[in-house]
Design brief:
Serine Threonine Protein Phosphatase 5, Tetratricopeptide repeat; single chain; mainly alpha; 344 residues
């Protein structure tokens, strides 16, 4: 008998798909979290300029990089490679120093896409007032043309928000997001999945959406993992795969995401051998009750006793029923003596 056919399994799916969808941090991942880190030589150089102004000690390796960056800018040579440690420090850094901005202009002559975007981003986010927004838009457009993933993702977000052109433009937003996604921008990969899931400017296609969520999940995008797990766990336009839903749910749960515990329990309940997973199902439900917010505690708390009762029924041995011997009814011939022919 499949326990997934019971009402409580459906209730768990509802708790996963709808109750979690309105929860705050603690019950589901934060959809707004950005995972792509912008790291390039231009941000690294600007960090070094700031270090020199604040008196921070700079390593010999980083000093050598800074000199090479300046020399290359003067001689029309491509940007040198910064150390991994310096790039990590400069992740998502906005170029703001006068020296850093001036050097960007030199790298523009080399058709450096990231140099164009760093300048555009500094202007359009108001970090520098050296030039006006109209120049910032021109710089952004050039960065898009040169194929900067960050520029295309940024442009896609602006089109989707209606910032460019004064109204929402999903076709343009999708075009830029797709370019960024094809270049490996993690957040763009997730967003392209959203376009297909919602049918925004493209034909709604859950299977393609699921593929993009899977790609993003494989690179550590937590909300994409949640959506992929939810889709694999139920009928949302793709064939259910409860083994996959369980693995993705476990990945989330192992990262401390309550939604993962709920999905893991729900997926186990819908497997063919659900009756063998009683201990683990109850474990994940207890995790959700322990770590979830008030609504999750209430939802799962109501379901848990029904789960226990259902497992008890499913795993109980067959009830013994003794053989019933019927008495011979009145005026009915039950036995005939084969020798005398007497009837009883």
């Amino acid at each position: 008998m499949r326990i997934r056919g019971l009402v409580f399994a459906c209730a768990l799916i509802v708790a996963t798909g709808s109750a979690l969808a309105v929860q705050r941090t603690g019950s589901m991942p934060d959809m707004a979290t950005q995972y792509h880190k912008r790291m390039n030589c231009h941000g690294a150089y600007d960090v070094l300029i700031e270090d020199s102004k604040t008196g921070r000690q700079v390593s010999a390796e980083d000093r050598a990089f800074g000199k090479a960056y300046e020399d290359n800018a003067a001689n029309g040579i491509a940007c040198p490679q910064a150390s991994a440690a310096l790039l990590a420090r400069a992740a998502d850094h906005v170029v703001v120093t006068d020296d850093g901005l001036a050097k960007l202009a030199s790298y523009h002559k080399l058709k450096d896409a990231s140099a164009y975007f760093e300048a555009a981003y500094s202007v359009l986010t108001g970090k520098t007032k050296i030039v006006g927004p109209e120049v910032g838009w021109e710089l952004l457009n050039q960065a898009n043309i040169l194929g900067s993933p960050e520029a295309n993702y940024f442009s896609g977000a602006l089109y989707a928000a209606g910032t460019i052109g004064g109204k929402v433009n999903y076709p343009e937003a999708f075009k830029h997001m797709k370019i960024a996604a094809d270049a490996g921008h993690l957040d763009a990969i997730f967003q392209v999945g959203n376009f297909y899931a919602a049918g925004l400017s493209v034909k709604k296609d859950p299977k393609i959406a699921f593929d993009y969520y899977g790609k993003a999940a494989a690179q550590g995008h937590v909300f994409a993992t949640y959506l992929a797990a939810s889709m694999a766990n139920g009928d949302q336009g793709i064939k259910a795969d409860h083994d996959l839903a369980y693995r993705l749910g476990r990945n989330l749960a192992d990262q401390g995401e309550v939604s993962g515990a709920v999905i893991a329990a729900s997926a186990l309940l819908q497997m063919k051998d659900a009756r063998t997973h009683e201990d683990e199902v109850l474990y994940w439900m207890d995790v959700a009750i322990r770590d979830g917010d008030t609504k999750i505690k209430d939802e799962i708390g109501k379901i848990r006793p029904r789960v226990i009762a259902a497992f008890k029924r499913a795993n109980a041995p067959p009830e013994y029923h003794p053989r019933v011997r019927k008495a011979c009814p009145t005026k009915t011939v039950c036995l005939v003596d084969r020798f005398t022919g007497a009837r009883q």
